[in-house]
Amino acid sequence: MRTQRRGVRLAWRICGLLLTVWVAVLPLMERSNPLRAAAFAAQPQGVLASASNMTEAQSAPSRYLIIAPDEFAPALAGYIAAKQAEGYDVIFKTLSQIGSSAAQIRAVILFYSPQFLLLVGDVGMLPAWPSRNGLSTSTDLYYATLDGAWDYTPNLAYARLPVHSTAELQAVLAKWADYRALDGSQAWLGRVAFVAGDEANESIHNQMIEQYTQPAGFDGRFPNNPQPGGDRLYVHAYAAAKTDLAAALNEGRGLAVYFGQGSRPGWMSPYFTAEDVTALTGPPLPLLVSFASRTAELDEEQTSFAEAWLLHPTSGALAVIAAGADTTHTADERLERELFHGLFSNAAAPPPLGEALRTAFLAFGGYYLPGETLVKQYYEMYSLWGDPTLRLWLDAPRRFSLSLEPNTLSVCGGLASSPSVEVGLASSLTQMVALSLLNPPQGVSGTFSPNPVGSPGSAALTLTIPAELPAGYFPLTVQGLSSAFQQAAALSLMVRPAAPSDKPLPLLPANGAMRVSLRPQLSWSAVSGADGYDVQIGLDADFSPIVEVFEDIAQTTLTLSRELQPSQTYYWRVRAKNGCGAGDYSPVAQFTTLPPPGECPFGSQSELLYRQSFDAVPTDGWLLQNGWEVSGAFGRGGVARAAAPAEISQKTLTSPLLSLPDDASVLAVWVRAEMAYEFGEPPACLDGGLLEISTDDGQTWFRAGSEGLLNPPYEGTLAVSFGNPLGGSPAWCHRRDWSPLAVDLTAYREQEVRLRFVVASGADEQSAEGLALDEFEAVACRAESPVRRLAISPAEQSAILPAGAAASFVWQVSNIGGQNERVEISISGELPADPSPPSFVLNAGESQEIRVEVRLPDSAAPESKYRLDLTARSQENSSVWAAASLELTVQRCGLQWSVPEDIPPLSAGQDYLLQIVLTNTGNAADTFRLSAVDQRNWRVVTPDVGPIQMGESALLYLPIAPPENAPPGETNRLRLTAHSEACPSFEQSLERLLVIQGSRLFLPVIRR
């Protein structure tokens, strides 16, 4: 007995001694482990591996670390944003930021301790680890084992995306994006395929079908249609061939699993290689599992069978689980069993693929003794290629989809109506679905027939809408409920007014405008609720007859396609319309078109201001210089003419000073003459003539010739060769017999002008008769009766204001007629507004400033618009009026931060300047105010921001001062908030982790 006790005591002492040695040696062994030592040696810049921040990183929910070569960063931006929208805390690092060796990459993974890891790039771009258990293939396992020297169990869900180029990456990301857009009701997602190479491989598949896929409702098409539980593409039992496998995959499957012999080219039975994969055309498999040897070798020099599936640009697979080395039958059966158990433990909320594989690994290890080589080899060889966060639609057979046709209804207010909608249902399994209408406005109801309805199938929804339902937008929801699933579809109901209640206002041409283009552009104010506009143009205010009718114009402008008659007064009006009818026509506006060149406008008479016949050399101020003379030319005597010799010359004929009248009754001023010229055959333009105008008694001259100012217009541009002094100028340069010349000087009323005719030639060995002028006269076109006309400027104003803001707008109302007017101002629109002053007397030629105060509602939605129309009307004659419009847009405030994601370790007692870039993403300029809060009350000084224009950025520096007594490794959480001055309710915040330089001693944590 004593001997036994002594033996027990001795055993306890030996165990105690061994434990003491273990505790003492373990940290040294951790550091001596090449993986762990590499991690410590390759500590990434700006990353401090203290116990506190490691614990914080490990506890962060759903942290997703993505590591990629730098050239892949732009292509990954959309995927990163999508994952952030799903709720993942995504951390993206490029190799230039962290280093490109396996040890450096692992150091970053160790620091962040994510739940999910994605390595982007083939092994030639982003390295893997060599096997530690005798395998010839490399592995990514040791990026995920973070627990010690002999750790071989992954601590996180990891995957690799072995792309070789940006084009391959973009193609894979596009497939992933398409999958994220699915709702699980697609029929092909409810079908799975089990492929077995020989009789021994069929048993495990049958077990998975009976235990998981058949109870879940999955089916297939081989060997029977339907085949409960999924395709049984068994070579031995059902003689499945390559064509049967391809047919199933091209039809689409939500999951495919192969069990059999494999090699680097592909599967042995049925024989299916990478070439067969590239020929697939169906939707990509969400997951392909290959329990076969060597189908996923990591090899820089050649593409593996698994890569062919993943890198297929449109088909293939989204994710692949496969082995890179030789496998065993029994172990593969065990791994398949545990993988299915992990995937189907909760089919309604399946785990991400990476986590499902990690869970399967842990359970697989339970079949063997701890540290058994086979387990380590399986952990090394089996890996996930694809998205580790991807989830399968394992409840797809129970799901159904809803579609509405149409999904938007538009009805007219004031009328009872009963529109109908077809509700379509689709599903892979037949099921009954109960339909209901959610969120109907008061008085609106819906009836479904039939209800419940079988899916796949359809039902008719009939809405009952009362006449008293007000105009507006009403979002409705059609809901379907089966025994296991709920689905909804949005239905938009737009109730329109019976017809637009507001009248548009004609803006341009302004009412009463004279000398309007023969193809004018008409514009008018917009009306809320209008789908289009009708425009009528007539010859009198009663529109009898109507000259032009334009219907269903989508915009608020219209340019006539054909010319109107010259010197004609036209009347026009516009009305708004929508699907419910048309509103009332606008007030009638009028305009008068341009007269023919040189003629007086309609309603005016010609008044001679000056005349010169050139029967003799003029003595009233004309200057004939450098060769101009009065003689005969072009078959006439007594004309002013200048020849174009075959030499460099410039000859000028300058008129006397012409005083042009300016009063409201003068509608136009013309200079008219008879002109002939000959400068050579077209298209040559070696010599020529042109006209210049001076308003400062000849001190400066500018060339006439803009459209409408000169008739006939210039024919070409003078050649710059041969030294022509006016080379490059537009000019008359061909041949023309005696014909009228008309120069429009209306724009120079109330000024004194001189005209100068210039003939220029070059040393071109060509002599020409030149240019001749006769019967020169200036005339004023005076209205036969006093003109009555008002004008408002500007015709259109717009502004962007914050909700609840008030602003003042100013217009000038002018009496540009010849008679005094009593003017009344009126305002119509969606906001209350009063003009100041509301009425006044305007003498001819006078102007009055009008001021209008406007305030937007506090509840105005961002980007919404409000319109006001202002009309000035004569109290004596209602047809004399002018209009202007104001459009207000509610300001949308927006901000984008650019702040370093990783702030380098700070030094205690030393200031650090944090660089911040603020970008205004709103629709108007805004001023932002910064505030800062941190956990440890360090001194943080927020800089003044100032106004930032729309789309522009401001660069700021935020001083951060850690205290001198801050201990090494201390962390601080800084929260920055930007507040908008324009939108008080808008603010945006972000947080950054601050760490004091140094480290704290910590013991490694033993998790197992």
Fold and architecture overview:
Strand 6 and strand 7 form a beta hairpin. The longest helix has 31 residues, at 2-32. This protein is elongated. Mean pLDDT is 89; it is low at 1-6, 8-60 and 999-1008. Strands 33, 35, 36, 39, 42, 45 and 47 form a seven-stranded antiparallel sheet that branches. It has a six-stranded mixed sheet with strand order 8-5-9-12-13-14, sandwiched between helices. The protein is 16% helix and 38% strand. By secondary structure, the protein is an alpha+beta fold. Helix 2 packs across helix 6. Residues 499-596 form the Fibronectin type-III domain. This is Fibronectin type-III domain-containing protein. Pfam families: Peptidase_C25.
Summarize the structure.
The protein has 1008 residues and is an alpha+beta fold. Strand 1, helix 4 (73-85) and strand 2 form a beta-alpha-beta unit. Keywords: Signal.
What layout of secondary structure does this protein have?
Elements (H helix, E strand, L loop, with lengths): L1 H31 L1 H8 L9 H9 L3 E6 L4 H13 L3 E6 H4 L3 H11 L3 E5 L36 E5 L4 H15 L11 E5 L5 H12 L5 E2 L6 E2 L2 E4 H4 L3 H10 L3 E5 L6 E2 L4 E2 H5 L9 E4 L13 H7 L8 E4 L5 H15 L9 H13 L7 H9 E4 L14 E6 L2 E5 L7 E8 L3 E8 L6 E5 L3 E3 L1 E8 L7 E10 L4 E11 L9 E3 L4 E4 L4 E4 L7 E7 L7 E8 L3 E3 L9 E10 L2 E2 L6 E5 L10 E9 L10 E3 L3 E5 L2 E9 L4 E6 L3 E2 L6 E13 L9 E7 L7 E2 L6 E2 L4 E2 L12 E2 L3 E10 L7 E10 L6 E16 L6 E4 L2 E6 L4 E10 L5 E9 L5 E2 L2 E4 L4 E9 L9 E10 L6 E10 L4 E4 L13 E9 L5 E9 L4 E2 L5 E3 L4 E9 L9 E10 L6 E9 L13
Parallel strand pairs: 1-2, 1-3, 3-4, 5-8, 5-9, 9-12, 12-13, 16-23, 25-32, 49-56
Antiparallel strand pairs: 6-7, 10-11, 13-14, 15-17, 17-21, 18-20, 18-22, 19-21, 22-23, 24-26, 26-29, 27-28, 27-30, 30-31, 30-32, 33-47, 34-37, 35-36, 36-47, 37-46, 38-46, 39-45, 39-47, 40-41, 40-46, 42-45, 43-44, 48-50, 50-54, 51-53, 51-55, 52-54, 55-56, 57-58, 58-62, 59-61, 59-63, 60-62, 63-64
Helix pairs in contact: 2-6, 13-14
